[in-house]
Structures are given as C-alpha cells and as structure tokens.
Amino acid sequence: MDERENNGILPEEEGGRIIDVNLTKEMQQSFLDYSMSVIVQRALPDVRDGLKPVHRRILYTMYENTLWPEKAYRKCADTVGSVLGRYHPHGDASVYDALVRLAQDFSMRYVLVDGHGNFGSIDGDPPAAYRYTEARMNKLSVQMLQDIDKDTVDFTPNYDDRLKEPTALPSHFPNILVNGSTGIAVGMATNIPPHNMGEVIDGMCCLIDNPDATLEDLMEHIKGPDFPTGGIIMGRSGIRAAYATGRGRIIVRARTEIEENEKTGRSKIIVTELPYMVNKARLIESIADLVKDKRIEGISNIDDHSDRNGMHIVIDVKRDASPQIVLNRLFTYTQLQSTFGVILLAIVGGEPKMLTLRQILEEYIKFQLEVITRRTQFDLKKAQDRAHILEGLMIALDFIDEVIKILRASKSIPEGKQALMERFGLDDPQAQAIVQMRLGQLTGLERAKVEEELAGLREKIADYLDILASEGRRLAIVKDEALEVKRKFSDERRTEIAAVSGEVDIEDLIPVEECVLTMTNFGYVKRQKMDTYHLQKRGGRGVTGMNRRDEDVATEIFVTGSHDYVLFFSSLGRVYKLKCYEIPEGSRTSRGMNIKNLLPLQPEEKVNSMIRVQAFDEDKYLVMVTKNGVIKRTKLSAYQNVRKGGLIAVDLDEGDSLSWVRVTSGHDDLLVATKKGMAIRFHETDARELSRTARGVRVMKLEEGDCIVGMSILREGGLVLTVTETGYGRLSEQDNYRLQKRGGKGLINYHTERFGDVAAIKVVDLDDDVILISEDGVIIRIAASGIRICARPSKGVRVMKLAPGSKVVTLARAPHEEDQVDDVAVEEDGDPEEGSDLPSEEESFEEE
C-alpha cells in the first residue's frame, strides 16, 4: 500500500487531496472558532465606542463617503453597497437593518444616522427598501469619528487585505451607556440599556474628579436607564443590582393616565408612553384578545389615536368597572409592564467581559486617555515638522541674496537643493521646501510673518509636551470635551424612576444587630434578636428556645448579623441566598416559618446546610461533600450572585445528594466519616479548586453499601464526637486521626460490625450540648462533657437508649443550657410521657 494511503491522503490523480481528521476534534475546534467570531466580530459591542462591528463599519463608510450633516442625503443602497464591498462580507439585509436601527428614534436614545424616508415605526412596520430611503451622518455621529484621521485608534486589515478599518471609533462620549446595546452571541448575551447623555457624562466627570467614588456617588449623577420611548421604572433596587454586579432586572411600566367623565360616569385609560422595545400594534392586539377571552373584564373599546405628535392609546372602561383595577390587570397580563433584564457584557481587550457601571466608565476613561495621547503625539509631530521647515525658511531669509544666487547657478532642482544643504547645513525637507517655492514667493516673504508662525508653533509644541507629561492635563481634556458634547446634545430625561411602596432600600431601615438563626429538623427557620438569650448565672434554668411540637428539634443554630447573607444548600445540589433580615422574626417559643415558604424548593428538595456569610471573600472557600463520597471545593466568591430561583452549587450524580457544606479558610484540615466506620483526615488543598458547576472529586474510597455520614472542620481544642445508630458514642482527640491524602480508604473510626453503623460525627467542645434524634422522633439533649473521651476505635458509652427497631438518625451541636428539660418529650403538664423510651441519666452514660 502506498505510504500516502497509509497517511489517509489520496493521490491527487485519484480524486484530489483528502485528509482524514478526527470528527470530534474538528467539530470542537470549528465551533470554537465560530463562537469566537460571533462573540467578537458580530454580536457584542466594544466597551470603547459601544458599537458592534457592523455599526462601526456603517459609520466609518459614511465618513469615507463624506456624508456630512450639511451635505445632501444619499441613497441607503449606495451606503449599504459600500459597506459590503469594503468591510462587511455578509448579507445586505443585515447591513441595512443595522443602518435602519441607527436612524430609529424609538430604538436609539440618541440616533447616529439622519434618515430620510420610511425607516419603520414603533408599530413594527418595516422600513422601505434601501433603494427608496436616504441617509447621512448627523452631528452626534461626527463626534464619534472626530480625530480619527490623527492616528487616535488602531486600524486592522479588512476581509481581503485591500483596505484598513478602525478597531474602534474615538467617540468623545460613552456611547455604550448612552445608546446601550442588545445582542445574542454563542453561550452569552448582552442587554445594555440606554441612558441620558447628560447624566452619563456627569457620572464620568465625577469619577475623573474622584477616582475613589463609590457606586452611590456615581448614582447621584446616573439615576438609571433612560429609554427613548419613556415609560416609568418601578423602583431602584434592580438598577442598583445591575450597576453593582453587571446583572439586574428592571421593571418598566407604560405612562398612563385615568380620565373620568363626570357627566357619563365612564372612565378612560390613556397610554402616552410604552416600555422600551414594546410593539404598539401587538400590544393593542393582545389587549383585545384578553378582553375577548374574558381574562380582563371591564374594557369596552380600544382606540389608537397616535400621530406624529406622539402616542395616544385610549382604553374605554365600562361604567360599572373600576379603572384602577382594570389598569392593574393590564399591567399584570400585558406588556404595559415589562421587565428589562440588564446584562452589562461587552468586549474588553478583545475578550467578552461582564462589567459593573464603574468598570464601564473606567474603561471608557482609559480609552479616552489613549485617544488624547495619540492625538497629541500626532499634532506634536506635525507642529515639529512645520517648525523645522520654518526654521529653514528663516535661514533662507537671513541669506536671501545668496540663496537666490545658488538657485540661479544650479542646473537642476536636485543640484540646487544639494547646494543649499551644503552651504547652510539644511536637511532634505528644509531644502525641498525652499526649492519648491517660486522665486517671487521667496523674495516676497515677510520675515515677521514667518517669525510669528514659528513662535506660535513653539508655544503649541511646549503645550503638547506638557499634555503628554501630565495625566492630569489629559484627564481635564477628556472631561472638557465630554462636557462640550453634553452642552450640545444633552436633553431632559424621558424615563421616570418611581419609588415603589415596600421596595424602599430596606437595608437602610433595618438596624444592624446580632441575631440567632435557628433551623429545625422538619425545615422550620426563624430569626431572633440576640438579647432574647440573656446572660444567666451558673445553675440557672435557661430559657425555652422553642416548643417541641411534633417531635421537632433545632439542628442548625448560629449567631449572625442582621445584614449578613445566609446560604441554603439543598439535597439536590442547589444553593439559595437570603439576607438574614429576610427570614421572619419569631418569638422564643415559636416554631418559625417553613423554609419552603421562603425558598422555591422542589417537592423532593430538602435544605441540608445553612451557612452564614458576612462577605464573599476571595480567600475563603466552600467545601461540599455528598452522601456518595464526592467532595468539591470552590471559592466562596463564586456564589455571590445567586438568583432568586437558586443556583447549581454542585453537579450531582443520579441517586446522590448534597449533605454537608462548610466555609473554610483555605488552610483547614477536614475529617470525613462513613457509615461503616471509616474516617479520613486530609488538608483541604488536597481537593483542588473547581468551578461552581463542576461535579467534584472522590473524597475517599467507599466499600459497597457504605456512604458518608459526616464532614467536619477540625479546629484547635475540638473533640471528635462519633455516634452510632444503636445509640453509642464517644469523644476522641483529633490527634487520633493522622493526616492522610484525600481519596484513600482512611482509618478505622468504629467497629461497626460489633456496635452498629455510624449515624453521624461532629466536632464539639466540652462546654457544648449535643442533640440526638432517633428515627421514631425521640429527642434527647445532653452535655458533651458527660461523654467519655476514648481512643479512636473504642465503643464508648451509651448516649441514648432506643426503642426496639429504632435508631439514631441525626446529631446536632448546640450551646449549653443548664438544667434543660424542654428538649425531652413531655406531656402538657411537664411530666415525662408514660412509657417513654428516653433513658435516665444513669442509663444514658453507663459505660459498656
């Protein structure tokens, strides 16, 4: 067989050059290349000028074609053809659609193209074909291209290397915020709302004047989005979230007014502004359908009286209907109220990046500093070159007669130029300038005029050098030029921002105080003020924490700040986030609220861990362990932006469940124990850092039928409590568990074949209480100090006597309470239940 055939390459005479490739690898690489092309070259705007490539190419082509605002309109077909032929190797429809959008005052807050003809409407009417419409640049788009001929931005070859196109426009205003952008790429999308130009420039100037300005400082100037169609934004919380994190949800309502006719007793709802990107014709059609289907009652007629003077939709309300109720239903069921999902995603340095408001302004200011620097360098070189020529002319004026004599004696221009250079020490550009002048001009030069121009150039050169040497000067220029754009083009805000009852920044109204959070075995959670648990002297009876109805007991108890975050991790591997103050406050004896009323849990989902987080520090980690022995370690900061519907914390295998979650410092030792009596101690860094949605790695080898029953962080002074399903338990020193590598079988923690399977482990202190719960709902609370400290494999003592067939199912650590009796199952009169299987104190601690 031919060697080429062995390589998978057929001879050219047998059908050409065919190369075998791995289909999987080729598809992966090709899709990756395609994805990056869509992300960078099509769907996402550049943070510097806020434009996608197609919009930038349209404006630059119009600039090249000198379609200035003061010149006549030109057919859009000409512009579209020029864009396609020079820079944009795609379909003409995509270019024309992009051009049309730049001219639509209901799509752009500040239009960048001056269109003439039918460019569509808010009713969704399509624009006329490009052979009928005309367009030119407007004064604002000129501001975006100003100084582009002064080497202010980089240029890159076009698709066929014939021409060069700019990678960004100089743009003397932050267009990415002013006009916003919407686009869907591959695996990501952007949705940046438009803003008021005056507010954005004021916010940028605030950041220039005060580089340490906070988000609140910036929002003093940038109030929120300002949509071209007006409307009313309901509340500020969504705005603040979007500016702080790059993501947020903004509720926008139509501007409406209720008119009442006292004579007829009938009312009308007048709609004068719609939420951004809402199609008016479809909205009216949807309202009519809802009335027809009787989902909205009380409407007798709908008319659209909109004209060139503005929008005017009239909704007639029946005489016996309440117009406010009808309006509320319209807000609920139609696009008179819509949600704008903010995603501040843009291209930064050639890569997509999620940005905050501050980061967008910082990137724009950095870009403008570069533009000013490059423009100044260009002007400096031009001034230096001209000054150099004038210095040569000054020499010529000083020796005018000799210059004329040399030129007359020369047989050719090169000879004359060379003679001037040798005689007066001129260089080629200076000599060339003298030679190219007519004799009459040379003799008629006025010395004062040359000296004046040269002096002016030297002043400019000194100024340019000062600008290049001083960032403060450059920042001042950025600020002054932006304020000039504001003066020329800024207008009044169109979108109102309304305060929402109940949505006032609630954190400002809630005092910062310590709280006790409690979660029970049955999923009830409550918040109590710390002073509920007042200090008592030794020997006191304590206070009742909660009534033990239905044999429930607190399994999670900790102290946290009222403004701290609480993360809830469920058995399905999801995480939910609440502020502490969002958990209802309960009395000492109340049960609290079921967690399912606070979190959108699925029917089979159960919260297994509750973690308090004061700040999502970059140097802290979350360690998660599942029942089937998978461990995952992720940065705590990865869980900062948890949606209301929850977030995937760990990708679980079928049949597995997330059971233990702990916050670690990055330097902790962990102890994991199994049902069949094995345990392993390892350093947390043995579990490598993984992404939020990753599956995790094996924590230890499990025998068939074995599973994980507990995970704890070892701490100085703590003791390891092991409790079996049969009610035996012991405390062990941490040194009994030597440090091993993650993934091994571990050490024998308990002889389960003799004393029963392990129910749980917990690291406790001697001054803690321990709560044990049995399968049949019996609860006992005992002092940890009453449990004997034994070596690792020992049986220990009986800590809970069980009814026949019952077993211990869970273990909780709680603060010690003196003479606590409330945790024992009791009747209404306070006496132990007759026939209770709870052991007496002597039975509980008898050594076996």
UniProtKB/TrEMBL annotation:
Give the compositionally biased regions (Acidic residues): 819-848
Q: Which reaction does it catalyse?
A: ATP-dependent breakage, passage and rejoining of double-stranded DNA
Q: Tell me, which GO biological process terms does this entry list? A: DNA topological change; DNA-templated DNA replication
Q: What main location does UniProt list? A: cytoplasm
Keywords, A to Z? ATP-binding, Cytoplasm, DNA-binding, Isomerase, Nucleotide-binding, Topoisomerase
The record's listing under CDD domains reads: TOP4c
* Listed SMART domains: TOP4c (SM00434)
Any Pfam family matching the protein: DNA_topoisoIV
A single Gene Ontology CC annotation of this entry is:
DNA topoisomerase type II (double strand cut, ATP-hydrolyzing) complex
Q: Which Gene3D superfamilies match?
A: 3.30.1360.40, DNA gyrase/topoisomerase IV, subunit A, C-terminal (2.120.10.90), Topoisomerase II, domain 5 (3.90.199.10), Topoisomerase, domain 3 (1.10.268.10)
Q: Where is the Topo IIA-type catalytic domain?
A: 44-509
Catalytic site? 132
Cellular location(s): Cytoplasm
Give positions of region: Disordered: 811-848
> Cross-referenced InterPro entries, in alphabetical order?
GyrA (IPR005743), GyrA/parC_rep (IPR006691), Gyrase/topoIV_suA_C (IPR035516), Topo_IIA-like_dom_sf (IPR013760), Topo_IIA_A/C_ab (IPR013758), Topo_IIA_A_a_sf (IPR013757), Topo_IIA_dom_A (IPR002205), Type_II_DNA_Topoisomerases (IPR050220)
Query: Main EC class of this protein?
Result: isomerase
Q: Where is this motif: GyrA-box?
A: 536-542
Provide the assembly information.
Heterotetramer, composed of two GyrA and two GyrB chains. In the heterotetramer, GyrA contains the active site tyrosine that forms a transient covalent intermediate with DNA, while GyrB binds cofactors and catalyzes ATP hydrolysis.
Give the record's family classification: Belongs to the type II topoisomerase GyrA/ParC subunit family.
Additional facts recorded? Few gyrases are as efficient as E.coli at forming negative supercoils. Not all organisms have 2 type II topoisomerases; in organisms with a single type II topoisomerase this enzyme also has to decatenate newly replicated chromosomes.
Question: What is this protein's function?
Answer: A type II topoisomerase that negatively supercoils closed circular double-stranded (ds) DNA in an ATP-dependent manner to modulate DNA topology and maintain chromosomes in an underwound state. Negative supercoiling favors strand separation, and DNA replication, transcription, recombination and repair, all of which involve strand separation. Also able to catalyze the interconversion of other topological isomers of dsDNA rings, including catenanes and knotted rings. Type II topoisomerases break and join 2 DNA strands simultaneously in an ATP-dependent manner.
According to UniProt, the name of this protein is DNA gyrase subunit A
